[in-house]
Amino acid sequence: MDVFNHEDLSGAFVLDGAGRFSMPLIGPVDASGLTGAELEDLLISRLKPDYLVNPRVSVSVEFYRPYYMMGEVGTTGTFPYVEDMTYLQAIAIAGGYSYRAKKDVVFVVRAGDDSREEIRLDVNEKVRPGDIIRVAERLF
To answer: pTM of the entire structure?
Structure first.
């Protein structure tokens, strides 16, 4: 994040598991569910009234939480998240389907879901950072 002409407020910030971080002057910031542009607007609104006359803020994501692949794929494990990636693309990155794979759906546990309940999704849906993806075995 860059706060223009204020290197003391700029730098890399790590979000905790709930999507929060702490910033000098304004303290805790909840970035959960916000786009980069929305976070920029939030930071500007928090800096403007009391600390800076005309703040200009630029936010970019350096690293996303990885996703995890298991089940009937070529390689299981941890993979770096790529923005706008589908489950089908994630499977391709993991070496494709095994010959036993069920190819039309995936079962996913979303990051931050305390119930750890698997949801059934189409392979053309978008992967989210931290997803645990399982490709099931077909029944015949």
So the answer is: 0.72
